[in-house]
Give the backbone structure.
Amino acid sequence: MNRADLRHMAEAEQERQERFRCRIMVCAGTPCLSAGAQTVLDSLRKALAESRLDAEIEAVASGCMGPCSRGPLVKVRQQGKKEIIFERVTPELARQILLSLAKGRRPPTVSALPPDFPFLARQMKVVLANSGSINPERVEEYVAAGGYGALAHALHELTPDDVCREVSVSGLRGRGGAGYPTGVKWNLARKANGERKYVVANGDEGDPGAYMDRSIMESDPHRILEGMALAGYAIGAEQGFIYVRGEYYLAGRRLEAAIRAAERAGLLGSRVFGSNFNFRIDIRTGAGAFVCGEETSLMASIMGRRGQPRQRPPYPAQQGLWGCPTLINNVETLATVPAIMGKGGNWYAGIGSAGSKGTKVYALAGQVEIAGLIEVPMGTTLREVVFDIGGGIPGGKRFKAAQSGGPSGGCIPSGELDTPLDYESMQRVGTIMGSGGLIIMDETSCMPDVASFFLDFCRDESCGKCVPCRVGTVEMHRLLRRITGGTATMDDLAKLEELCELVGAASLCGLGMTAPNPVLSTLRYFRDEYVEHISRHRCAAGVCSMAEVPAGPEQEALLHAMGGAGEEA
Amino acid sequence: MSVVTLTIDGELVSGRRGETLLQVIREHGLALPTLCHLEGLSERGGCRLCIVEVEGSPRPMPACSTAAREGMVVRTATDRLIRYRRMIVELLFAERNHYCAVCVSAGNCELQTVAATLGVDHVRYEYLSPRLTMDLSHERFGIDHNRCILCTRCVRVCDEVEGVHTWDVSCRGVRSRVIADLNHPWGRSETCTSCGKCVQVCPTGALFTKGAAVGEMVKDAGMLTRVIEGRDKKGWQE
C-alpha cells in the first residue's frame, strides 16, 4: 500500500456508495443491539432482497449514533437530502420506511427525530466523527472518510519529533481520567532508551455507567489503530497492544476484524505505506478486573501475570512491558490523535477551555430524559449537558447531583450546575473528569446509599495487595451500611472519615487512593443526609429501609450466615 | 560506588545509589515497622507499614519500594504516620481471626511485635470473623488461614529462592487466599519440595511445623540471607 493506493481505495469506496440512491444505517452498537437492532437490520435486508431494491438501497450496520436510550436507531441518508434519524424503530416501522423510500415518498415522520434535535445539534464530534456514519467492519468506509490519511502523511512528511510536537501543540490530555498531558507522555517515551518499545491502548473500561471506550472501539476501530500506529511511529515502537475489557465481546471482535483488514490492506504490519516503519497490533482481553485499568496492573496482565499494581516510579514510559519503555494511553486519547494529525494541533487547541483543550466524550446515564453518548467541547457546563442536550430530568423531578468519574470520582450538586466540565473546574468542586461517565441523579436518590454503592464496587474490585484498600474498603462499606441501615452512631461517621483519610493516603494504586472519593464528595455536599440517617433514623429520599434495629449478637450471626464481606468465597 | 545524601528526620545521612529508603533508614539505626518486607525477597509494598513522608510528595511513600535520591527530605515518625500505622495494624487484626492466646507463634510473631511496638491495645473496627480453614494435609507442616496477613513472603520465597512457585494467591480483595498449586491441599501438591522455607519466613503463625504447641513456633527468617549468601559464595560446592 502506498498513498496512491490509499487514494484509490477511498475513491473506489466513494463511487460504490454513490451508486446507491439511499443508504440506511442501522445502529449496531451494544445498546441498540440489545434493544433489537439486529432484527430491524435483518428485516430490512430481507425486504430489500425480496423487493430487489438492493442495487439502489443499501442497509448498513453502523456504529453508535448517540441517543442510546431511544434505540434501535436508524439513519436514512439520501443523495442530496438531509439525513433523517428514526428512534425506537421496530421491524415493522423499518419496512414502512423502506417502502416509502422505494416509492420515492417522504418517509413516515412519526418517530423521526427533528432536524434540530438538541441532543445531536449541540454536540461537536471529533472522536465520534465517523460513529454512526460508517460500517465499522469495513476498512474501506473508514478510508473513504479520510482514514489513514494522517498516518500516510506522518510517515512520509513528518519526523517522529514533529508528530510529538503536534500532539503537544494540540494540548490533548489523557482521556482515561488523570488528564496527564499526552504530548509530554509521548516525548518521555520517545526519549526513553530501550531496545524495544511498546504502545498500549487501554480499553479496560470498568466504571459503572461508563461506555465511551466501548462505543469508540465498536463504532470506529480503525481510528484507534491509526492513533496507535501514529504513537508507535512517534516513540519508535513496533508493537502495540489493545487491552480490551473481557465483557466487551463485540468491541473485541470488531477490533480483531479491523486489525486483520488493516494488515491485509498493508495499513499495519511491515513497511507501512512503503516506509521503513513496521507496526503490529495485538489484542489482549481482560478477565474482568477493574484494577487492570490501572496501568501497572494492565501491564502485568498483558505479560500474563496476576493483575496487580506495583509502586510507581518507575513509570511505564521508563520501565513498562518486559522492562521496556511503554506508552500507555486510553482508547479515546489515541482515537483523538488521527484528527489532530489530520487537521493540526492548533486547530484542536482552538476548541475547549484554557487548560483543557478539545472535546470530550461522555456517557450520559441515570435520571435524564435522553441517555446516551455525547461529545462536546471541554468547558461545556453541566447544565447544558443535562438540560439542553439530555433533555432534563424526567417526570418533572428535581435535579439533585451528577456523579462523574465513576468510583474514583464524586458528585456535582445542583448548586454547581454551571460548572464547566473541564479538568480544573471539576477538581475544584471535588470530583474528577474521569473517563467520562456522567450519572444524573434526581431527588429520589439517597446520597449515603450512592456512596455505599460505589464503596461496594471498590471493595469487590480491590485486588487485595495492600492492606488499606483490601480491608479499609470493607470496613468503610460496613460503616456505610450501618448508616443506611439506621444503626450507626456519630462515632461511626468519625471512624468512616478517618478511614477515608487512611485509604486515600496510604493505598498502593489509584483504585485505593480514590476509593473514598464518593464518600468524601457526598459528605461535602450532603452531610445533612448522613446526619439525618444517623440521628433521626430517616432517609428523606425513601431509599434506605431503616427497618433494621440496632444489631445485637443474634443479628450479627445472621449477617455472617447471609454472607457479609468477610465471608469466605 | 556513587553515594547520595538525604535528610531523614532532620539528620543528614548518606546512602548508596540504588538503595531503597528503607535500607538507608535502617542502616542509620532508625526503626521502621515492616511486615511484607524481608531481606532477600523482592519488594512488594503491600503492608504499607513503612510509609514515610517525603517532602514534595502529597502522599506518604512506602520506604521499601522507594529509591533513595539525592537531597530527599524524609520524615519517618510524624504523628500522622504513626496514626496511619496503628490503623493499618488494627485493620489487619479485624480482617482475620488472630487469637494470640491459642496461636503457635504467640510471643514469636511479627504482627504481635509490631502491634505492641505501636501500642495497639484494642481494635476499633468491626471484626470480619471470616470462617477460614486450616490445611494440615502436609506431612510436616500446616497452614492456618486465620493467621495469614497476605504478606506473600511464602509466595515469593517459594518462587524466588526455592524456584518452585508452589504458593500463589487466589481470588482478590478481602477474599484473597494463599493457595498451593492450583488450590490443592498442600499435602497433595506435586511441586512442593517440603523445604520449609515458607514456614521460616512467615511472619505470623499462619505457616507452622506440625506438633508445635502455643508459643512454640519460633521462626528463623534470617536463614534466608544465609541461604542467599551461601549460594552467591558457592559455599556448598564439594
